UniProtKB/TrEMBL annotation:
InterPro entries: Cation_efflux, Cation_efflux_CTD, Cation_efflux_CTD_sf, Cation_efflux_TM, Cation_efflux_TMD_sf, CDF_Transporter
Organism from which the protein derives: Phyllobacterium ifriqiyense
Residue ranges of every copy of the Cation efflux protein cytoplasmic domain listed in the record: 218-294
Location of the protein in the cell: Membrane
Protein's name according to its UniProt entry: Cation diffusion facilitator family transporter
Domain Cation efflux protein transmembrane, residue spans: 20-212
Keywords from the named record: Membrane, Transmembrane, Transmembrane helix, Transport
Pfam families noted in UniProt: Cation_efflux, ZT_dimer
Parts of the chain that traverse the membrane: 17-36, 48-67, 88-108, 120-141, 162-181
UniProt similarity note: Belongs to the cation diffusion facilitator (CDF) transporter (TC 2.A.4) family.
Amino acid sequence: MIDTRSAVNGETTVRRLAFWSIFIGIAVLGLKYAAYHVTGSVALYSDALESIVNVVAALAAFWAILLSHKPADQNHPYGHHKAEYFSAVIEGVLIILAALLILREVWVAWETPRSLDEPWLGLAINGGASLINAVWASLLLRSGRKHRSPALIADGKHIMTDVVTSLGVFIGLVGAVATGWTILDPLLAVIVAVNILWQGWRVISNSVQGLMDGGVSTDETMRIRDIISANAGGALEVHDLKARVAGRMTFIEFHLVVDANMSVRDAHIICDRIENALMHHIPEASVVIHVEPEDEAKLPIGTAAVPFA
C-alpha cells in the first residue's frame, strides 16, 4: 500500500524548500552585489547578475511546484505533474540570458579596463555568499532527488553552477590582484558566461526530454519487470511494457496474459497484487494493466513477451 503520510510530508518539504529558495536567493544577491560594489569587478558583477536569475528562477520553481501538486481535474485528468518541467525550461532560458548580459559587460570592461577597489573585502563577501549557496544547493539536490522534483533539482544544479563559477572567479581575482593583470577580470567573466551557457542548455535539454514523455532508464525498466514477475503468480506472461516519467510521477502500463479459463475475479486479484507492489516500490506510480486471455494475446511486432516461471 502507498504510504500516504510519507507522500504528504514529501510534498510539504518540497514546497517549503521552494519557498525559502526565494529568500536565500535574495540574500545571496544582496551579498554578491555588495562584493561588486566595493570592488568594481566585472567578474563579480557577472556573479551578481547570475544571482538575479537565481531569484527569478526560484519564483518560477515555487509557482510550478504549487501547480504540480494540484489534484487532477476535468481539464487535466492526468494531473499537473509536468508543470515543473516548464519551470526548468524557464530557468534554462534565464540562465542563457544572464550569460549574454555578462558578455555585454565583458565587452565594456575590455574597452575600458580598470583597477579593482578593495579586492580582498569584496572577495570575502563573495566567498560568504558562495558558501551559503553551496549548502543550499546540496540540500535542494538531495531533497529534489528524494522527492523526485525536477524543479528543485534544476534549481539546485543552477545554484551549484553558481558556486563553481564563483570559486573560479575567486581564484582568478586573487591571481589578478597578486600579479596586477587587470585583464584577468574580464577574462574570468567570459569563462563564467560560457559555463553558464552550457549549464543553461543542459537544463533546457533535460526538461524538454521530460515534456516529450521520455521513457525511464533501462535499469528502471528491468526493476519494474522484476517487481511484476515477483508478484504475478497465476499469470502466464507480460508484454508491451511501457513506462515514462512526468515530474515525480511514473506512469506504467503493460499487457498481462492469463489462462483463458481464469475468472475475472482471479485476474483482478493478480492485477491488484502487481499494482500494489509497483506502487510500494515506486512512489507515486500510476499503473494500467490490460488483461488478455492466452488464446487471444497479440504481441506488437518486434515486442518480446516475458513468461513467468
